[in-house]
Structures
1.
Amino acid sequence: MNQSYISEDAWKIVETGFNPDRVKASESIFSIGNGAMGQRANFEEHYSGPSFQGSYIGGIYYPDKTKVGWWKNGYPDYFAKVINAPNWIGIDITVDQIPLDLFTSKKILQFTRVLDMKTGLYSRSYELEMPNGIQLKASVKRFLSMKEGESGAIEYNIELLSEKASFDISPYLNGKIKNEDSNWDDPFWNHLEAEVNDQSAFLLSKTLKTEFHVCSFMHAELSLNGNPLGDPCKNFNNENKLGFTTAINLSKGDQLTITKYGGYVTSLHHDEHQLKSVAKQKISSSLEKGFQSLYDDHSDCWSQIWALSDIVIGGDLNAQQGIRFNIFQLNQTYTGRDDRLNIGPKGFTGEKYGGSAYWDTEAYCLPFYMTTKGPEVAKNLLKYRFNQLPKAIENAEKLGFNGGAALFPMVTMNGEECHNEWEITFEEIHRNGAIAYAIYNYENFTNDTSYIPEKGLEVLIAISRFWSQRVNFSNQKNKYVILGVTGPNEYENNVDSNWYTNYIARWTLKYTINQIHKGKTQWPEQLQNTTKKTNLKEEEIDRWLEITEKMYLPFDAKHNVYLQQDGFLDKEMMTVDQLDDDQRPINQNWSWDRILRSPFIKQADTLQGFYFFEDDFTHQELEDHYNFYKPFTLHESSLSPCIHSILAVRLDKMKEAYELYLRTSRLDLDDYNIEVEEGLHITSMAGTWMSVVNGFVGLKIKEGMLSLKPKLPQHWNSLSLKINYRGAVLTIHHENNDSTFQWSGEKPLDLLLNDHPITVNSSKKLNPTL
Amino acid sequence: MNQSYISEDAWKIVETGFNPDRVKASESIFSIGNGAMGQRANFEEHYSGPSFQGSYIGGIYYPDKTKVGWWKNGYPDYFAKVINAPNWIGIDITVDQIPLDLFTSKKILQFTRVLDMKTGLYSRSYELEMPNGIQLKASVKRFLSMKEGESGAIEYNIELLSEKASFDISPYLNGKIKNEDSNWDDPFWNHLEAEVNDQSAFLLSKTLKTEFHVCSFMHAELSLNGNPLGDPCKNFNNENKLGFTTAINLSKGDQLTITKYGGYVTSLHHDEHQLKSVAKQKISSSLEKGFQSLYDDHSDCWSQIWALSDIVIGGDLNAQQGIRFNIFQLNQTYTGRDDRLNIGPKGFTGEKYGGSAYWDTEAYCLPFYMTTKGPEVAKNLLKYRFNQLPKAIENAEKLGFNGGAALFPMVTMNGEECHNEWEITFEEIHRNGAIAYAIYNYENFTNDTSYIPEKGLEVLIAISRFWSQRVNFSNQKNKYVILGVTGPNEYENNVDSNWYTNYIARWTLKYTINQIHKGKTQWPEQLQNTTKKTNLKEEEIDRWLEITEKMYLPFDAKHNVYLQQDGFLDKEMMTVDQLDDDQRPINQNWSWDRILRSPFIKQADTLQGFYFFEDDFTHQELEDHYNFYKPFTLHESSLSPCIHSILAVRLDKMKEAYELYLRTSRLDLDDYNIEVEEGLHITSMAGTWMSVVNGFVGLKIKEGMLSLKPKLPQHWNSLSLKINYRGAVLTIHHENNDSTFQWSGEKPLDLLLNDHPITVNSSKKLNPTL
């Protein structure tokens, strides 16, 4: 099913040979970003073949009016769209008046793309014959500076292989862009001012409705065989495509180099009236440093990132490449410096799904950033939601809830719900549970006990209030039920009593009650403040308790399993292995009607609960549920295989765990779901990381202690990684069923290794003292 | 809750006094139509206040690309929209250069609208003072000829009350129109040619995509104090608004009359290249006859309609006006002459809901047309679906069904499904049952046994095949279930085991099997042809039988009722009387989320089944179910109160039956749902008729015999109506608990009166021979 053309390499993603059919896929795979902005791997020179052009700026969005068949009360007004920003990478090149264009060239003699994950460099080289017979070769390097944030650089080298030819080189900035994902083909940008000034260009723009101000900028310099060329011939500004054109004649062997700097400065970080001058400073500073030095800084940043976050897999190049690709992309998407940003499902690699924060953030991404970066980054993710609490309360009010109940959005940019479908926005309420769980997860892992009293409890109360209003008492069942929900498995819509939702709702209520009790003794003053601020009443807590005691959890005695939802067993219980290959993925081959009525599971649902709340169940229960649900699970969501992989490790199904791991880690590289051209599955990459760290390494916190149970796939020789744990770094190396540790902390670290307590002393690399 | 400004009158709808706030409502209520076209009661002269302009032509539609948040496989491509057609009624009038416009006039001294239902005449009179102080009065008459079909006429009289004034009179045809209900603001029309020729104007247009050709036409003549005025001053054509202007000076007491003829000829009925010449003939013929004679012909048609369809209620003017208004509008909407037309939910009075055929046709409208017109009209409605069977099979194939299974559309113009929402199109499959039921209903009532062998069986087989594939066997329940449906109660979406759907599916399968058995002995050759044509296999029939034997019907032993759907009792069983008035209608005040989770019923669902299949249940069962569901039923669908009213009569709850009757019969006149300005609830008007005929008269067919059980609301003195029954007319008069009959048939008619067999002899008016 998978279709890979990427060569195996430990640190590099390499594509060899040019095939127009995979240009859009490669544009996704070779995407680059620096947390503040990102670009699909579009060519700098003109390309007339099928391509998906995309440059995106973190936090800049457009509230696209929702598109619904029949608007009903409570539907969100808009779907926040990630906006395609002006393109600053473009360089039009003509050779003897013919556009240089890989799609129309007569012959492509060589073509290679390389994404060097170690240093964050995207490079490309090619050799071709033009329609007019001219032959040339080129090599291009590009990066978005991890250090500078707001700028990037390109070095574009051309060597003429024919006797001679005249070149027109036109580096430009292009505001004539549009979103592929747009509901109404509205313009998203209003361009206010365009300036071309010598070799620099500036485009001042404002997003419509949201009124973000952005100055896109670029500056380009040319040199011939290392000698700078003089002034540009001609500036142009053709309807917001602006730049300059230099004409030059090359002879065989001549080396022409175009060095281009560009980026965006925005009103998110600067005074909107100062943007052009800030952009000019950015250009000056880039020119001062020059390409190499900028690159060195950038590469240093990547060294620091890898120093903490690398995972080294011995004996499996394919798996190694997969995990590094995932870690690399996660770092390109979010750096954790800005608590207004979050991790969109496609990061900066595409437009689909819009928004920037899904429950993916809490359920999948938080552990990665918390463990490979540090608590402050994880805390920024929690603060993102805390800051949006007032909007989450408004979201709930729009649906008829009150008294400070919060429903965090399914999709958002600014806290407002912004998705098109009622079956998602109104019903996929389990997201509220994941947001509560993340607060627990953060405190549990970091031992930072300050967050809950300061901020977290307020969020927990608001979510508990939501659950308390969202349940109703069924006289029939003599239990509390939650009706009309969509669980994580979106191949069911509007079901009653989804086990996962009920379970996490009950857990939230219990956890909130526990925190309040804890506060009474440990931080009474902060508790009092929060109680006062939220106007929390004792009766509310009493009701929460009553709900936790009487929450309904659908269970089937015959199969001895919890049911994904009421009535699940009324379906025709066809299993995945009975499906012909040509039916899969069913979301591309079956009508929605047929999918909804089938027992097929898009992504782990009941098992997602077993992953979160593993300690609540016996090993046998886990095994029973895994075995029951696996045959129906299609993993057509990218968020699914990682959970199954982790649980498979627990159940010692190592072959299965490994296959699922490969599927998750190489989902995009091998294009399992035949959709990589739309962009990468960024948030699920954190799931890949989880499947190594929580799966093969078996990392978890057990009664406050770090617990590890390393267990590698058969042909992995070794596994090494680092954990940023409670203020110091634990290096873990596992090889030949033997774990060795290095601990940077001053005090020895007590941990559980395969359920045995051990102590790791600081400073030296040691086998653990058992 | 209701807000009526319409005076009570047995034959007229009268509005007195001008109020701009009710212009849009009156535009709906005073709508006129002749089955082939219709118009909202827009003013002829310019009106600058809030108004909803609408002229519609039967069978002319636009396939508007569907608007969905997230397209999934099987979603319909388009939503067929009723198109607003060029307006031919317009007459711009200026008085001393100031536009005559009720919205901007200084004073309105008198204003009256009258819809004379007896003759189908819409008239209006007013007296006003213009902003420039000029006073005048006017009276306007308008009708769309029931005889001619394609044309109508207007007579507009103006009398000057001031000393003198100059008038510019500009009758026009206006192609600058757009739909309020448009998904993408696409243009729906392409105007090909405009011609103004003397006092006539023609606009040749083509609908986009569907390519219907339409020639809109008009001709106007002016006379002063009865003397024709000469040639028009000036023709104009301003971007497809075309006509002529005549200037004239009037003195006090002068009477200016504008007589205007207009209409549409279309490629549905004529060669598209001949349309203009046909239109010219229409104008000539109108001119030859003149307004009065055209009106006389039109009025004669209405006499004939009323002769068969009138219902006379003694002693209740309000109810009398209500029932006539419903009968009048149903006749304006559909005449039954053209088997390509059907009865759109808003007829020609608005755009909402698009399409022309819903299940309303079979479940509500068929009995009205069958009984007040005759079997040929009912048969045309059945043929409409028969002709669309291939498309219904395609609709099912798009969802993954096969082997000739048909899913008739929820909404259609040409047989293709065309609605925006999956929860409706994929899931509201009970419509298929209503289409099968209509075949039964037709044969049962008319005793025309030829339709099923000729056409009906093919439809029944295709629908049975659908049910057979749509059920699945639940091992859990050891029964066949139907998962993922929306029942008639659209305040539930995607439920499992909806009782009504399961019941009508089982009924269809049984009925189809019975018809096949009957065919074996009674029409073996036609059966063989159909079997061959449909490739029907014995195994299929075996499976149908098995399904009928094992169909699951949700039942609750405690309440001793069938449940609307599985899990209905898990809801918080709040009743309608616990709802504050300001919460209703909940579809305007509650979020969709809250509605879906509530137990509230939009329209009769389980009780709809009790209405269709009354004979399957005991009186006690009916009573139990009525009493159980009534407290949850909001009647927020116009199709609901009539069913409850009929059943209430059965249960001798006469006060309740009457209240529900008034609500259905005066739904639009009294604007119960605060939405009449969007158009009238045409199809529910047939439900009103049912509530009199099947309710108060108790008409049904019982074992092949006409059965009546007249029972009137307390203060009705009498009730008279006619029934076109099996080739002759039965007149029924009920008064003082006594029924008298007149029968036009040659042979005596045996019927059941209050379950007693009686015989009604022909020719004479008689009390029945008991």
2.
Amino acid sequence: MNEKIRIGILGYGNLGRGVELALRQNPDMEQVAFFTRRDPSSVNTLSPSIPVYGVDALLAMKDEIDVLILCGGSATDLPKQSPEYAKNFHIVDSFDNHSKIPEHFDACDAAAKSGGKIAFISGGWDPGMFSLQRLLGNCILPQGKDYTFWGKGVSQGHSDAIRRIEGVLDAKQYTVPVEDALARVRAGEDPVLSTREKHTRECFVVAKEGADLARIEQEIKTMPAYFADYDTTVNFITKEELLRDHAGIPHGGFVLRSGVTGDGTRQMIEYSLKLGSNPEFTASVLVACARAVYRLGKRGEVGARTIFDLPPALLSMKDGAALRKELL
Amino acid sequence: MNEKIRIGILGYGNLGRGVELALRQNPDMEQVAFFTRRDPSSVNTLSPSIPVYGVDALLAMKDEIDVLILCGGSATDLPKQSPEYAKNFHIVDSFDNHSKIPEHFDACDAAAKSGGKIAFISGGWDPGMFSLQRLLGNCILPQGKDYTFWGKGVSQGHSDAIRRIEGVLDAKQYTVPVEDALARVRAGEDPVLSTREKHTRECFVVAKEGADLARIEQEIKTMPAYFADYDTTVNFITKEELLRDHAGIPHGGFVLRSGVTGDGTRQMIEYSLKLGSNPEFTASVLVACARAVYRLGKRGEVGARTIFDLPPALLSMKDGAALRKELL
């Protein structure tokens, strides 16, 4: 084996921990350090032998890190961090604000080009693997329709929105695909589906003692953008039940391309994920992408990239001959 | 739109006709001509305005064809044709003899390099899209198991094998995945499955009048390599029933990657195809790959390539910015 690919992790929440764990499954990589905006001594990782540094230490370690994986959030962290660090590091991020991807790409592209680096953005599963499946489906079946269903899984954003309601102690929200809608797509009906027809929302809420449950339920169900357009179920449970039954962060979903070839011949492509842990899976994608980024960098390429731009073989530990023999 | 990509089709069976039809769905391409080893006047295509030439006319049309799609068979046609034509044309083939892919790749690589061309081999769905899904699954979930199930669909090779039996007029063989095995994989059991446990084989046979049906059934069920290792059902039907109920060439299947991240978290990736026409779908993949090959050629790349080597964006009619905006 060649020299190992040296990885830095910036940010240590669920995603950062997922990257830490994924790196253990990839023997051609090694983790150099964690970087955090918190007090490093307050961060307890799963890898006591790997140092935790403050974010200020990053730039000085430029030559010791081949790829920096950014594990911050898409709302405020990545729009700032990705272009900033792409000037000095090959980076990988999981920027997932779909409508802002074009501007994020442009900002990262300019930064990466100015520093002679590769900035890989929007890794993960949606955007990420789901996007790739949408692209492939569109290319193979130009006459067809796309369908993406999410779930069953925990939406962090919707859970947070519920927690902000007066009288709520804690909450977990599941996005659930409507089985009947999925069945109609699979049957080749090419239905036109409204937001309400595609997904339902299930909420598990821990309320403060004495809180007005009817008012909380009403506030959830009528919340614009988050719940108003969906059929929403609200279940009040105890804190113990929430911890016992809803501790995980599962997710998943379905991407379908329903198309027609020739003289009306039906063709159906379906891709689905059933993820025990959303952040661990996302992290696993980021780590594979980091390998590809390292190799693109070695070739002297610069600028922003997405999953659409990566020759898939670059994601693998194996060389081309082994891949053709074993997997083609 | 730029100049159209000019495509030649060599061979006009089910796959050639599929390519002819797929090109009609891809407005950035145009078909220049058909080439055949038969008497051109005996070939009736679906496109009367596109000329049919003998294969001898090919070389002289070198400068009028951007990509030549080879639609012959993998047993005897492609091992000869692909390296031969890769010296003078960018080619795309659907070579599907898995065990011989490495040597086919090497032969095409040498030929393509000698002529400064790109030779894309083994396009289609298996090898092809299924291979890509196996690769992605392995890269994202290094700790896991691969499963590929085929069907329900028509196996041309197995149908042909039955037709060669004395007393058989015609036959169609379906490969059928065992639902229970698929269910166990989806449940995360990671079962070890024998050949017999993964697929069954259903045969529909038209026998000659007075033929010994018991002997035919016995010969099918005990045929080494083709049927002996499977639970096989043999149904004798009339020629009319075969034409009425078994005229299509459907196929499909499933690729699953069952993996584990972190501390035993289960993650499942599933890709499936339900194809009304196997050759039309395969042809649609080849056409998308031809676009990528054309672009690689424009970049000055040379040599053999597979689906593992293609940046997915090159498969699309759309440019990078549109893809990021619409599909990422």
